[in-house]
Amino acid sequence: MGKKMDHQLTLGEQVKIARKLKKLSQVEFADKCNLNIRTIQRIENNEVKPRLFTLRIIEEVLDIELFTKFDDDTESEELQKLRNVFEKRKQTRMFTFIAAIFLLVTTLFLILSGIPKHIWAPFIYLLFFADFIVIGISWRCPGCNCLLGDVFNIKYCSKCGLKFYD
Length: 166
Fold this sequence. Notes:
Layout lengths: L2 E2 L6 H11 L4 H8 L3 H8 L7 H11 L1 E2 L6 H42 L3 H22 L28
Parallel strand pairs: 1-2
Helix pairs in contact: 2-3, 5-6
């Protein structure tokens, strides 16, 4: 990590000073961090307490070490909460994957049974649609809410760098 910031400054002041030293506008800085411009404004104006992963992204982009009032216990606690959310979402993804396979098998059975399609097809389509919606919602990083990549072997978020496992 680069230069350490003054611990007497607020977090917002530290970010603003470091950004200006790098000669970045708020828009350029937000783009480099993959954050919303309004998020940067709120951080710099001390209107919000950013999440730890957001602070890590800011530190990396500005090449500084921010002084924050987080201690190791707070950081570990927040990281554990995010990992718990990830695990719950992973279980949801597994359940919806199994549900999709079940729907495929059921559809095959209904096709082979000769039951007219207009009776069962709308329900199957609705269930498939609901299944895909749940997959789309649960396939996101709990830290930055971006879409995750690999189906079953995801170890970290490619956008924010949040590690789901040690």
